[in-house]
# Entry
Amino acid sequence: MPKLTLDTPVQYLKGVGPKMAKRLGKIGIKTIRDLLTYYPFRYKNFALKSPIAQVQEGETVTIQGKIKEIKNEYTKTGKTIQKALVEDETGTLPVVWFNQPFLTKTLAPGISVSLAGKIKRFNYQPTLISPEYEILSPRKSSYQYQEIHTGRLVPVYSETKGINSKYLRKIIAQALKETKEIINEIFPRQILVKYNLIPRRQALEKIHFPESKAAAEAARHRLAFEEMFLIQLQALERRLSWQKGKKSFWTKLSSPQESLAPFLKSLPFSLTKSQKKAIKEIITDIKKPKPMNRLLQGDVGSGKTIVAAAAAYLTVKNGFQAALMAPTEILAFQHYQTFKTLFSPLNIPVEIISHSLRKETKKVVKITIGTHALLHHEEVFSNLGLLIIDEQHRFGVLQRGKIIQQMAQRQGFFPHLLTMTATPIPRTVTLTLHGDLDLSVIDELPPGRKPVATFVVPNEDREKCYRWLEKEIKEKKIQAFIVCPFVEPSETLETVKAAKEEFKKLQEKVFPNLKLALLHGRMKGKEKKAVLEKLQKGKIDILVSTPVVEVGIDLPNATVMIIEGADRFGLAQLHQLRGRVGRGERKSRCFLFAENPTQKALIRLKALETIHQGVKLAEIDLKLRGPGEIYGLKQHGFPKLKIATFTDFALVSQAREAAKEFINTDPLWQKKITHWKADIPAILPN
Ligand code: ADP
Ligand code: MG
# Structure
C-alpha cells in the first residue's frame, strides 16, 4: 500500500470505504488533512477508572473487565434490552443497553471490555446504563491508543447522518497512527519557544486524544496559533507581492506638503488631527516609486473625502490623472458634486462617468468620478496616477486587482491605490482581512459634531414618535429619513416591495400633510438623481428608503432618522446608517424600532444609545453574532476558521508578529509557504 500523505483521499484509510468516504465528503472531510483537522468541540470526561467494587451511584466512570454473560430481553412494546454482567477482580456489575441487539454478538462472554458511562439504579441495583464500549481483547493492534472511546477524555465531534463521533474517533486514531512520520513541524524552534507552542504532531494527537484538560488546551492554542499564523503569512505575502516589480509615479514636488497649501486654504474648515496624519501617510507613500496600497478607515462623517481629494490634488499637481470609483451611482454623483465644489475654485475640472449619466466631454480629464462604469471608458485614462475606491468592500478584492492590472498594462505603470471604507471592522479582523494593506485610520469626527442621540422605541410609542416628527418638521423645517429593513440580506425585489408599501402607508395614512419620497436601489439613475435633487432643495420632508441611504447621502438638513426592523441589522451597520443624520450643527436623533424583539435583541440595540464609535460596536457584533454577521465581511470572502477565533486579540496580534519574524529571519519563507498552501484557510479564492 502506498504511504499516506496529508493529501491522500480519506478513502484510502483503513476503515473508510467508498460509501463512508462519500458521507465524510459531505461534511468537508475529503483528505487525511481534513480529517485530522476536524477538531472536536468538546470532550466527555470518562477519565475516572474505577474497580467495580468501588463504583457509586451517580458517578460517570470507566470500568474494565470481562463480559460474564449477556442476553437480549424483549419488552412488551417490542423493544429490546441488552442485559450483561461484567466482572473484574473486585466484583461484578450489571450493565444495560437499549435496542442494540447486535451487542450480544459483539460483546460475547469472555471478551475483555472497557465500558464508560453513568451508574444509575436499575431494577433496584447500581447498574451501568448505556455505556460506551470498546473491546480490549483481543487487542486491536491497529489502534495507536488502546482506549479511544472510554477511560479518558473522549472527543465529541459535530456529527451528521451516518457519521458519529465513535466512527470519527476510530478513523482519526487510525489516521494519526499512519501519519506518524509525515507530520512535520512548520515553526522554527525560536517561535515555538517564544510563543509557548507544543510541537505540531503532538498538538494534532492531543487535540483529539488529550490526557488532560491542560493538554487539550495546549493543543488548541498551538493549532489556533498556526491557523492564524498562516493567514497572516499569506496576507504579508500578498502585501510584498503587491509592490514587487511594480512602478508608480512618485512625487517630484520639492515639498508636497507645501504644494498642498492652496487646496487646504480653499477649505472652509481646518483638518482634524487624524485627517492630517492620513494625508502625511499618503505623502510618504507617493514619495516612493512603488504603488501605494492604503486603506483609509473612518466612521461615516469622519471626513475621508477630503483626504482623498487632497491625494487627488497632489496627483494632478504632479501632472497625472486621478480617478474616484464609487459603488453606486448615488454615491458617485455625490462625490462628483463635492469634488466640483472643492476643485472649481482651483481651476481643476472634474468629470463624471456612469451608466446613466453620459460622459460629458471627450477631452483628457484630470479628475474623473464614476461607478465601475469607469472601466468601460479606458480611453479617458492614459496617465492615471491615483485610483481611489470608495466603500472598497463592495468591489471584490479580485475585481480590484484586475482593474489595476488592466490600467497598468495600458499605461505602462501602476496607479497608486487608495481605498476607503466606513465599515467599522474590529481591529483583529482588520489586521487579518487587510493584512496586505497599509492602514490609515480616522478616529475622530470633525469638531462640533454632536453624536446622534439614539433611542430604542417600544412599538406602543410609535404613534407618539410619528407625531413628534411631524411637529419637528413643521416647526424646524428639518428633514428626516425612514429606513426600511432589507427583507433579505441584500436589496431584492422583496425588499423594494416592502419599502413601497411602507412608503404608501406613511404618505397616505401617517403623514398626509407632508411630502414624502421613496428611494431604493432598483430605481433608474435618473429617478434617483431627481429625488436627491428635490431632497437637497428641501422639497421633500421625509425620505423613505431601503438601507441604500447608508452609502452616500450628505444632507445637512436631515436631523432625524427612524429605522424599522432594527433588530435585523448589525450594530455597526446601524451605526453607519445613523451617521447619515447629524451632519449639520443641530442636534439630531435616531429612533430604532424592532419587529419582534427578544430581550437579547433589545439589550444589543441599547448599546447604540451609549456607544458612538463604529469600531467598538463592531467588536460587540463580533462577540455576540460572530464574524459572519459583521456587515460587509461576507463580501470579503472571509476565511472560515477551524479553530482560531477573531475575538482572541492576543492570538491575532501574536500570530502576526510571528509571521513578520518568520519572513524576516527565514530566507526560504517563500518556498515554504507554497508547501503550506493546503494548510492555509482561503482568504481569497486563488
Ligand atoms: P465620510 O468619511 O463619511 O466620507 P465626508 O468626507 O463625506 O465623510 O465628510 C463629512 C462632512 O464633514 C462633509 O460635509 C465634510 O465637508 C465635513 N468635513 C470633513 N472634514 C471636516 C473638518 N475637518 N472640519 C469640519 N468639517 C469637515
Ligand atoms: Mg464618504
User: Anything to note?
Assistant: Residues 453-611 form a domain with the Rossmann fold fold (CATH 3.40.50.300).
